[in-house]
């Protein structure tokens, strides 16, 4: 099976069932097929060939998925950009130049952010706007409507690249993670099998189609089984609550910051969560306060999972098995996971090691980057750069990023552990912990804290937080330096931007 066949079950069995809902716009399986086929022919009419790259910059919308499948149909490679880059034309130009994209498909909302990009991106031949506009020179829909339909379909292979998604670039320049038709399709099969999805399922996703989780990690397993995917054009907590109430989804996925906002949102307490079989949460550390707050709100545990752009969610708590709070679960169908030490040897259960994974859903490599591609694998296993340990039942527990581990006086400290302790304080909304340079100890612990001004509890002072955390952690893990901030910097995928925090800690 090729990737453009992924929705054919829904097309054959329930052609008029919604495949995708974005805000109040609905796309049925019949419409998904008809539009993506028309647009695929339009791409061929323009001269796009198998293997050509097309950069996409737009918010969540029906046309996003339709254009993905148009690219898949002819073997073109879609390269989505995060909407965070809307005013950063140099970031978009970097991606276009790396992939040598011929076309840029953009929504009208982001046109102003890419002015002048053609001067800095020689490969870029044309910019199309996806919205209905009068200008025939840039209107994609007008071009597609007038395109010839008599061009034969090119041969597409499972091993062909289908998608290049850029890493967040929080520590270095973004890398183009390249997935093939086979790896994306296999991911959909693995996830849908693990979650036992069927055509009756409705999946509400609080993420973007330009990211790996929205682009194929959560959306395609549901579509593969003929279900319905629901997204928001732009995430906001009231709208998210409205969608749960309106559509009664069977599965939901959100990042930790979104779950925290939902839990603290007053109207959430009036919502019936009983239709939901699994509420997935991942992409960053899921702290104790999020887990406890969600359980009190919904009456069941969050399902914490784990994955990466290079291999989308390959661990999760079994949806119909034991859900261990704080665990990232066990490998999904088709995935194998090991923990290794710095010498590449497997570590015993209970000991911390680097997570490596072997899975047919793993990336083919980084686009035009053989050096980093080679570094990413060890004997056929993908290195994640993340640390975890495995308990006696085989469940994995995330410890932290190897590069984020704080080495203080020879002792290792995981920022997530310290953050979890700080976040348990009722006066704290969220915290971020990084290592700051120190001449004697090498590094010290620097905590950035956002206090909760809406919970109605006294705002904690530094000394109070020290004493609070000191009762939960060893003395050497208690932060040495505290900075109170209004908010924490975030990467394009909603994670704490530790590079930004570390840069600040180095200067202060």
Descriptive report:
The chain has a nine-stranded mixed sheet. Strands 16, 17, 19, 20 and 21 form a five-stranded antiparallel sheet that branches. Strands 4-3-5-6 form a four-stranded parallel sheet, sandwiched between helices. Helix 15 (462-470) links the parallel strand 25 (442-451) and strand 26 (481-484). The mean pLDDT is 92. The protein is globular, with a radius of gyration of 23 Å. It is an alpha/beta fold.
In short:
This protein has 508 residues and is an alpha/beta fold. The chain contains 16 helices and 26 strands.
Compile the SSE list and pairings.
Blueprint: H1 8-13, E1 18-22, E2 25-28, H2 29-46, E3 53-57, H3 62-74, E4 77-80, H4 89-99, E5 103-106, H5 117-120, E6 126-129, H6 140-145, E7 161-166, E8 176-180, H7 181-195, E9 202-205, H8 212-217, H9 219-224, E10 228-231, H10 237-247, E11 251-254, H11 256-264, E12 278-281, H12 288-298, E13 303-306, E14 315-316, E15 330-331, E16 335-340, E17 353-359, E18 365-366, H13 370-375, E19 377-378, E20 381-390, E21 396-401, E22 406-408, E23 411-413, H14 415-423, E24 428-438, E25 442-451, H15 462-470, E26 481-484, H16 498-507
Sum up the structure in keywords.
single chain; 508 residues; alpha/beta; five-stranded antiparallel β-sheet
Percentage of residues in helical conformation? 25-40%
Which strand order do you get reading across the main beta sheet? 2-1-10-9-11-12-13-14-15
- Show unreliable segments: none
For the CA atoms, what is the radius of gyration? 23 Å
Sheet with the most strands, sense and barrel status: 9 strands, mixed
Binned strand content? 15-25%
Q: If you average the pLDDT, what whole number results?
A: 92
- Helix/sheet category: alpha/beta
Shape: globular
Distance between the termini: 55 Å
Counting DSSP H or I runs of 4 or more residues, the number of helices is: 16
E-strand count: 26
Oligomer: single chain
């Amino acid at each position: 099976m090729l990737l453009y066949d992924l929705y054919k079950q829904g097309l054959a069995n329930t052609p008029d069932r919604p495949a995708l809902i974005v805000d109040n716009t609905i796309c049925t399986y019949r419409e998904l097929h008809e539009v993506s086929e028309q647009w695929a022919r339009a791409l061929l009419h323009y001269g796009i060939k198998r293997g050509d790259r097309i950069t996409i910059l737009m918010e969540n919308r029906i046309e996003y998925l339709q254009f993905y499948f148009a690219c898949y149909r002819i073997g073109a490679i879609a390269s989505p950009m995060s909407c965070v880059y809307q005013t950063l034309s140099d970031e978009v130009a970097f991606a276009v130049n790396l992939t040598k994209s011929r076309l840029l498909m953009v929504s009208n909302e982001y046109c102003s952010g890419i002015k002048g990009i053609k001067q800095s991106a020689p490969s870029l031949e044309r910019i199309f706007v996806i919205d209905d506009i009068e200008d025939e020179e840039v209107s994609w829909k007008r071009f597609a409507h007038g395109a010839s339909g008599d061009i034969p379909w090119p041969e597409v292979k499972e091993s062909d690249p289908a998608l290049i998604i850029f890493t967040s670039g929080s520590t270095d320049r973004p890398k183009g993670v390249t997935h093939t038709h086979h790896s994306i399709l296999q991911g959909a099969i693995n996830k849908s099998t693990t979650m036992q999805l069927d055509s009756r399922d409705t999946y509400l996703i609080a993420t973007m189609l330009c990211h790996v989780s929205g682009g194929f990690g959560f959306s395609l397993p549901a579509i593969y089984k003929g279900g319905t995917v629901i997204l928001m054009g732009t995430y906001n907590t009231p709208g998210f609550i409205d969608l749960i109430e309106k559509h009664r989804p069977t599965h939901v996925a959100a990042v930790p910051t979104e779950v925290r906002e939902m839990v603290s949102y007053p109207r959430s307490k009036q919502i019936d969560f009983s239709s939901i079989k699994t509420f997935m949460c991942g992409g960053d550390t899921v702290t104790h306060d999020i887990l406890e707050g969600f359980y009190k709100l919904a009456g069941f545990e969050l399902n914490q999972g784990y994955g990466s752009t290079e291999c989308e969610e390959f661990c999760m708590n079994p949806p119909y098995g034991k859900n261990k709070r704080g665990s990232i679960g066990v490998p999904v169908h088709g995935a194998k996971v090991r923990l290794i030490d710095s010498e590449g040897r497997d570590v015993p259960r209970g000991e911390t090691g680097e997570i490596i994974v072997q899975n047919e859903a793993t990336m083919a490599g980084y686009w035009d980057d053989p050096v980093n591609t080679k570094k990413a694998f060890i004997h056929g296993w993908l290195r994640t750069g993340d640390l975890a340990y495995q308990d006696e039942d085989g469940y994995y527990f995330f410890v932290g990023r190897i590069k984020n581990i704080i080495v203080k006086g020879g002792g290792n400290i995981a920022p997530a552990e310290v953050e979890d302790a700080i976040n348990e304080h009722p006066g704290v909304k969220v915290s971020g912990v990084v290592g700051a340079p120190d001449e004697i100890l090498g590094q010290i612990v620097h905590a950035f804290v956002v206090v909760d001004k809406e919970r109605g509890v006294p705002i904690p002072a530094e000394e109070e937080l020290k004493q609070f955390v000191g009762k939960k952690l060893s003395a050497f893990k208690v932060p040495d330096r505290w900075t109170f901030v209004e908010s924490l910097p975030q990467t394009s995928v909603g994670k704490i931007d530790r590079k930004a925090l570390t840069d600040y800690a180095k200067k202060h």
